[in-house]
Amino acid sequence: MELLKLRDLVFSAGNKVILDRFSLTVEACEIHALVGTNGSGKSTLAAMIMGCEGYAPASGDIIFDQRSLNDQKIHERARLGIAMAWQEPVRFEGLGVPEYLTLRDSSLDPAALLTAVGLEPSLYLHRQVDRSLSGGERRRIELASVLGLKPRLAILDEPDSGIDMLSTGDIIGVVKRFKDNGAAVLLITHQEEIARIADRASLMHRGRIICTGKPVPVTAWYREKKYLAWDGE
Ligand code: ADP
Ligand code: MG
Q1: Ligand 1 mean position to 56 CA, how many Å?
Q2: Residue 92's pLDDT is what?
Q3: How far away, in angstroms, is 89 Cα from ligand 2 center?
Q4: Ligand 1 atom 15: the closest Cα is on which residue?
Q5: DSSP 3-state helix, strand, coil percentages of the chain (rounded to 5)?
Q6: How far, in Å, is the centroid of ligand 2 from the Cα of 43?
Q7: Which of 42-46, 70-74, 89-93, 116-120 has the lowest mean pLDDT?
Q8: The pairing of beta strand 208-213 with beta strand 2-13
Q9: Rg of the chain in Å (alpha carbons)
Q10: Is the pLDDT of residue 197 over 70?
Q11: Do residues 70 and 63 touch, judged by C-beta distance below 8 A?
């Protein structure tokens, strides 16, 4: 079943076309990796799907569970089950880690969520979601909060960024957790090792998808810069 269907999305900022008739489908319960060089439009697309202010498409459709999201605000999309972990993780000065993890659902167990993202609960339950956490720690805590939202679609924008290489396995474990919970994942990543756990992968270049398929050949195309052929190079 198609959970998310993006059709011919167009978005410009300044005088630059960022999404150029972008189309992509994410199936229910599918991990779909999205790879592409810096500036290809991945984070812009993520903000558009989530419904962030200023990211409405000039044309095209965002269809989630067979209904159009084009006119839905960010909180309405969240209520329908779309959640996102931002490329730049959030910071809330003065908010404790357990309070942050249980903001939406007080019945959640913050320790279990921390364990799921590879953090030792006793070291973090008394901390605050502020600048005293390292970027990698904040990123993991944000992933834990998105996990706790039990979304139907999780958009993870470079969940591996700021995470040390040895911890790639933790990130892979979290992504699989989403799938085990019945969620679909749009997984934006530059790391081949992470993209390979996806059911399908798509390569984005200059605001469009230029190929979709099994993760191994698609990430090989990315690594070998085959997308340059699209520039006539
Ligand atoms: P990615 O996440 O794939 O690295 P982004 O979606 O962040 O790419 O950005 C795509 C391109 O759009 C980049 O060249 C970026 O500089 C540009 N861009 C993003 N937002 C704006 C904006 N508000 N105004 C002008 N250019 C923007
Ligand atoms: Mg980005």
Answers
A1: 14
A2: 78
A3: 12
A4: 39
A5: 35, 30, 35
A6: 4
A7: 89-93
A8: unpaired
A9: 17
A10: yes
A11: no
Question: Which pLDDT score, from 0 to 100, does residue 110 have?
Answer: 97
Are 26 and 82 in contact, with CB atoms under 8 Å apart? no
What residues flank ligand 1, with Cβ below 6 Å?
13-14, 16, 18, 36, 38-44
> What span, in angstroms and rounded, lies between the C-alpha atoms of 51 and 41?
15
**Distance of CA 54 to CAs 3, 70, 72, 74, Å?**
24, 13, 13, 11
What is the pLDDT at residue 199?
98
Atom of ligand 1 nearest to the CA of 47: 6
Q: Closest Cα to residue 84, out of 186, 177, 175? A: 186
Average pLDDT over residues 159-185: 92
Nearest CA to 155 out of 184, 177, 192, 181 is that of: 184
Distance (Å, whole) CA 226 – CA 146: 34
**Residue 29: pLDDT band with limits 50, 70, 90:** very high
